Amino acid sequence: MSASHSPNAIDQPNLREWLDEQSRILGFDGLRITDTHLGSATERLNEWLAEGRHGQMEYMARHADLRSDPGALVPGAVRVICLTMNYLSPAIDFDGEWQRLADPSQAAVSMYARGRDYHKVMRNRLQEFAKLIESRIGNFGYRVFTDSAPLMEVELARKAGLGWRGKHTLLLNRESGSTFFLGEILIDVPLPIDEEQESHCGTCQSCIEVCPTQAIIAPYQLDARRCISYLTIENPDSIPVEFRRAMGNRVYGCDDCQLICPWNKFAQRTALPDFAERHGLGRASLLQLWSWTEAEFEKRHEGSAIRRIGYSRWRRNLAVALGNALIAPEVTNEDKLHIRQALMEAQAEADPLVAEHISWALKA
Fold first, then answer.
1. 248 in the Ramachandran plot: left (φ > 0), alpha (ψ -120 to 50) or beta?
2. How far apart are CA 300 and CA 297, in angstroms?
3. Considering the domain boundaries, does residue 237 fall inside one?
4. What is the DSSP string of 260-326?
5. Structural domains in the chain (count)
6. Residue range 167-197, pLDDT digits in tens
7. Residue 213, CB half-sphere, CA atoms under 13 Å: how many?
8. Which of left, alpha, beta for 342 (phi over 0: left; psi -120 to 50: alpha)?
9. One-character DSSP codes across 19-68
10. CA-closest candidate to residue 255, choices 227, 236, 279
């Protein structure tokens, strides 16, 4: 990486103010800067991987060396501009989310996934921001990221002062809780760095206690193999039987640890239309989503993060939730009859992954 930027431009006393202003104009909600040194976080990552807590996310282990050294990922990088973007739609109400989780006939889709794919939204705006910086200081070396490469994003954001790691391992911020996406621009410009924040979780254990599958095995320690977000999204195989009942009606991701977190009373709503709910994903019943054909799934999830799990995993997750609805006392006998009929009608033509979960559901 080479740079031809002017030192005088970099040293402008109002450059940081300009960066903050431009980031807000582009829709980002927080900006901090840190260096590329990760310290003890590398050791903790290696221990986590050695214990197999990453499950089948083999890419975590495959690129562990790059995760531990951003300078290797982007040669010449000396700083990381870390940014946040709030995703919570104004239509979302936490009390309403708890009510949905308590209704076994309804589908619970993680709040962050109901709008456009954040990868695309963030990446485009990060790229635009980098070009604006270039127009200000001259040519410089950079690369943008948002959950798109082996980069320890949460650790870098923590170091930069955007928040602290909660006991659920997500980043928490006093101004906006945890309902935001992270993005980074690795640069070869030695900008001044920001200070870290202190942790403010105190003695609270709410996220640990509320986790349906006890995936938070200790404060700041997550076993992804037990996490419903992993099981419904990253896991390509059958959902382990021991976790199926605990999934309830969660068909894509899980928000429980965020919904219970006291800091999320400060969660900020986004003004970006990109993250507005699409196709009724915050209101749909399990049977409504089950009725989608593969073509409908592809069409309705076009531009959505959900689309990447594919139709088979989507149906697998729904089959588990429908099986849970069949044993729920809150669901009427008439609705259970409709559920059982819908599952039986789909069983013959289902692929082996989905068929196995349908069989499990029908045994309720």
1. left
2. 5
3. yes
4. S-GGGGGPPBP--GGGS--TTTTT-BHHHHHT--HHHHHHHTTTSGGGGGHHHHHHHHHHHHHHHHH
5. 1
6. 999 999 999 999 999 999 999 999 999 999 9
7. 26
8. alpha
9. HHHHHHHTT--EEEEEES--TTHHHHHHHHHHTTTTTT-HHHHHTHHHHT
10. 227
The Cβ of residue 46 has, within 10 Å, a number of other Cβ atoms equal to 15
For residue 232, give the nearest of 213, 215, 216, 251 by alpha carbon. Answer: 251
Residue 126, domain member (yes or no): no
Question: Residue 148's closest CA among 120, 171, 128, 176?
Answer: 120
Is residue 222, in this structure, part of any structural domain at all?
A: yes
Q: Measured on CA atoms in the order 219, 221, 227, 230, is the torsion positive or negative? A: positive
Q: For 158-168, write each residue's pLDDT tens digit.
A: 999 999 999 99
Residue 241 token pair: 């039987």
Query: Across-strand partners of 252?
Result: 109
Catalytic residue among 103, 147, 255, 335, which?
147
pTM equals 0.91
Which amino acid is residue 350, in one-letter code?
A: A
* Active site annotation includes 223: no
Is residue 306 situated within a structural domain?
Answer: yes
Residue 170 sits at the vertex; the CA angle it makes with 127 and 108, to the nearest 5 degrees, is 95
